[in-house]
């Protein structure tokens, strides 16, 4: 059994932020810390006090997760970034909202005494002597302390307090991993004062000492000659009143904590086998009954999540195409009007979206990436809508006169035609680059739609069915928001964003096969009409080639699309050489273009620009591929061995165990994550178990409605599959409860929380 904790985080927007720049505005971005470790950095939104980010993340958490913090920063090009304020959520707060916390939260002022991190190694014991009893506190070492000095370190010492008496340790200079190995004794008070306080401070010669954190030990229950030893997390000092609360603006967040108990693989096999058998049975039939029940009973609120879980599960079983085929047929059976086909947020639409993101992200980057990069680099002013044309933005023409509105629109149309032509050419040449699984799925979709609407007047419908996913739900959203698809590291500025939006609209019109409704809605797109019409012909030809894939070719290509060896991360990585400071603070580095897969790490020299997001993504990717490494170290030295000692902890033995623990537990999840079939099966089980009553009711309703349909009403195997599903769900629930009851590592409160889920 394994515990899997994860956080869904959506950073929506901010409002009423204070101005930090002389222009009366700010350039805000967010940093997210988990247990004092930075894991996320959003894009910067320029020149605004009400930024919109709309960024979503899923984070895998360590078992000891306790705090989630959001810091709103103002980016400065020439000086240090300003801290605007923060929002802090503890695990207990998130546990009180099982459906997730969603709302506005006021930013509070950063209190230096609250910004603590690190741990301290202590041993506390009560010892008896002939005359009295004493409290003995041994202070061994600390790790990962906050850096308070300009040199990137601190000068820590310890202050131990009991019953009004204070002892202080020696000062360890320039270290965030100090070792003291000192002990302090206090006479045990006759009234038995319970609290022993250990504080860590940064010593300063000129200014006041900086608080680094504290530990409060409750001596009640600590018996004579017994000891308490271990690593203790440093806690903040006493908080002062936040006089600026509400004056620093607000942050809108959606955060959901999920704790899952994942059983060994064999326990999920009956559920996985049943779902796969249903797909196999329904391959030659009209529909799959279990899939139909899931489709009918899944609410809009959780449709995206269950669609992603099912897609990943069936991708691991090599049956994603069959699963989507069943959903296509269910959708087609409910659709009489071809113009509305796959336009709703049904399970079929959401599943196909997830499928394209899981299996086609690299393909998307190859096709769309060059055009997106060109738009970002050129930063052309582009506008076709006369009501939005700004003459002052256009500048002067070659004759040193202000351009007219018509001249701006003409020039904008030429720019957009160039971008659209490049993109259409890239799409047309990408047939062989498209993953075989996606090609085979589009072939099946094309076939099913043609069978459902065979009339000549509906010739375009089967093409539009493909483009409704490929263009409207895949290419177009990525063009509008390249940051959210990892095509760019930062959001576009206002000018570039408008260009991207217009290009996305053009691609949508091509995907709609230049429908009259699209032309009538935005008539000012008319200058692009020749390119759009030409694009329709190109796209039709592309789709015909895309779906022209033989079964043997599909199998051969599918072997190459082994999801366990997909590229986990590709891009630039900065390799630092440290200067005895412990962390990556050096000015010298090597610039490499790196490709990381589950099998290999390859690199080459290439130009590079530093980005915090890129570093975090690399750390997350490296952690993912190392997660199954049994030889991975649990601790390491963040410094270097120089001058016959470690620069981080000052130990003099080169082979001594590391002074800091490795941070490999918190990872970001993205569409390129390696498949985790046990977790996907657990999430599907949890979803089906939660809606078992709805499944029963819908099953009875469908049976009554289809009394003349043997596959749904009289086939004993169909009825048996429903009964079998409920039996499997009950067995899994009983097994989980048994594991939880017998687990000594889970507290009673956590057990109640997990059972409630």
SSE blueprint:
Layout: E1 2-15, E2 28-34, E3 37-41, E4 52-61, E5 67-74, E6 82-90, H1 91-95, E7 101-106, E8 119-128, E9 133-143, E10 156-162, E11 165-168, E12 179-187, E13 195-202, E14 210-218, E15 227-233, E16 250-262, H2 265-282, H3 289-297, H4 303-316, H5 320-333, H6 347-378, H7 391-394, H8 405-428, H9 436-452, H10 461-480, H11 494-511, H12 516-521, H13 529-546, H14 551-560, E17 567-576, E18 589-597, E19 601-604, H15 612-626, E20 635-636, E21 660-661, E22 667-669, H16 677-690, H17 692-705, H18 710-713, H19 716-742, H20 748-756
Antiparallel strand pairs: 1-4, 1-16, 2-3, 2-5, 4-22, 5-6, 7-16, 8-9, 8-15, 9-12, 10-11, 10-13, 13-14, 17-18, 18-19, 20-21
Concise synopsis of the structure shown:
This protein has 757 residues and is an alpha+beta fold.
